[in-house]
Amino acid sequence: MLELAGEYDVPIRLPLAESSTTTMDGIPEPLAASMQEAALRLLAQFRPRSADGFFVTFYAELEILTDPHMRAEIEKHGIELFRFAQLHTCGR
Question: What is the pTM of this model?
Answer without folding.
Answer: 0.47
